[in-house]
Design brief:
This protein has 434 residues and is an alpha+beta fold. The chain is built from five helices and 19 strands.
């Protein structure tokens, strides 16, 4: 009986000690979870592209946007590591509001995997990760490589080209290299804020010159640019690309042309927005086919000139009516530079919105109080741009929608309500034979 009593006492002591330990440990574990919740946690990591194909020997790069969403004050930055730096290297940009640009550069043919990982942890205390599959193709064997220049001095490859021929038809590719240069400028703007035309000046604005190689001729190329180049100036320049690809419709309701398909890709951010809402409506299709497709200008002393034959070049560096709207670079479209300006109002690019204006040639504007002055562009050319948080893609919206605090979904945009697709263009100066 005594032995049984001792056994019970020892058992109770062990249970008491175990209960005491549990009471001590439980608050510690709880306080750790509470501290993590107080500091915040990562809720998601998304990538704009998980499959990247590059060309060897072209120093080709692809930009993938990583978006980190958090709760509380968790870190929104990421790291990225290549499984084979001999195939492709990776560089991580500076995070802005949870959006980070990851640049992948081709080194040698082959394949590798880029692992993108959050620095912050989720609610379970683990870092989130996503993978980008990278394929670098051999330049000599790539059938998708495209180049519009068949200069003998150019050592880039053409499909079907041999040593006995100087020319061959290149095979088209969805890939397009975008080159952007920028400068600051001071400009004059025409506004109608008080119901009367006014000329205003603005300083320290950004002007960008946007070039494409090859010049885009397909919807797939436009979508590639939208997904891989997160720049509102580049997206705005694509409207000029769409304008340059116009083919006269069979009738005023014809919506089968490349131009309309390209515009709808710009409207939807290459598909991130609902096409049934953000689309070119039937009235806009008519306006394009009638005002632009059938529009004509009459030079002084000359015959009628179709608007579509010169209007796209009116937005390019070096093009004027006096030189028949010939851009810098002449017939080489890869050297054309579309001029896109920051508008003086409604812009905060760091917070995801900006107003930009493709700049076309314009005449001097007369005002009520002064002699005519040269105006960079007027208010009707404004294109509002909003950055999609999850992907970093910029989509157009009416500039008026950017007044005041910017929040909520973008409003449907209608580029045809501006003069871009109108017949309001200064015609070329006819050749006088000098």
């Amino acid at each position: 009986m005594k032995n049984l009593k001792d056994l019970l006492l020892r058992t109770c002591s062990v249970m008491a000690i175990a209960s005491l330990i549990a009471l001590i440990i439980a608050p510690v574990a709880g306080s750790s979870q509470d501290a993590q919740a107080a500091g915040g946690y990562v809720s998601s990591l998304t990538l704009s592209d998980k499959n990247v194909t590059l060309i060897e020997d072209e120093v080709e790069k692809a930009v993938v946007t990583a978006t980190v969403k958090v709760s509380g004050g968790a870190k929104q930055t990421v790291t990225a590591r290549s499984s084979d730096t001999d195939v492709a290297t990776v560089k991580v940009g500076k995070a802005k509001s949870g959006v980070t640009k990851i640049t992948v550069t081709a080194e040698d043919s082959g394949s590798c995997v880029i692992t993108v990982k959050t620095k912050g942890k989720n609610s379970s205390g683990k870092k989130l990760s996503q993978k980008i599959k990278v394929t670098v193709e051999d330049d000599e064997d790539d059938d998708d490589h495209d180049d519009d220049d068949d200069d003998d001095d150019d050592d880039r490859e053409y499909a079907g080209r041999d040593d006995k021929k100087d020319t061959a038809s290149p095979v088209t590719s969805d890939k397009v290299t975008v080159t952007v240069t920028s400068e600051t400028f001071s400009g004059k703007y025409e506004t109608n804020e008080s119901g009367k035309p006014q000329i205003k000046e603005a300083n320290d604005l950004t002007r960008k010159y946007v070039s494409f190689d090859p010049w885009p001729t397909t919807v797939e190329q436009v979508e590639y640019i939208i997904r891989n180049y997160s720049d509102p100036y580049v997206t705005a320049a694509l409207f000029i690309v769409a304008l340059e690809n116009y083919e006269k419709g069979k009738d005023m309701n014809d919506r089968t042309g490349t131009t309309i398909a390209m515009i709808e890709s710009i409207y939807t951010g290459a598909g991130i927005l609902d096409k049934s809402v953000y689309r070119v409506d039937n009235f806009a299709v008519q306006r394009i086919n009638v005002n632009y497709g059938m529009g004509e200008a009459v030079p002084d002393g000359g015959a009628k000139v179709p608007i579509s034959s010169f209007a796209p070049r009116a937005y390019m560096k070096g093009a004027t009516p006096e030189n028949d709207y010939t851009p810098d670079g002449g017939s080489d479209k890869t050297k054309w530079q579309i001029v896109v300006d920051e508008y003086v109002y409604n812009g905060d690019i760091d917070n995801g919105y900006i107003t930009v204006c493709p700049q076309r040639y314009t005449l001097e504007k007369a005002t009520e109080l002064s002699t005519p002055v040269y105006v960079e562009h007027n208010a009707v050319l404004r294109i509002g741009m909003r950055r999609h948080k999850a992907t970093g893609i910029w989509v157009p919206t009416p500039a008026s929608a950017l007044s005041g605090e910017v929040s909520g979904n973008v409003k449907a945009f209608d580029i045809t309500s501006t003069v871009l697709f109108s017949n309001n263009y200064v015609p070329p100066v006819i050749d006088q034979g000098f």
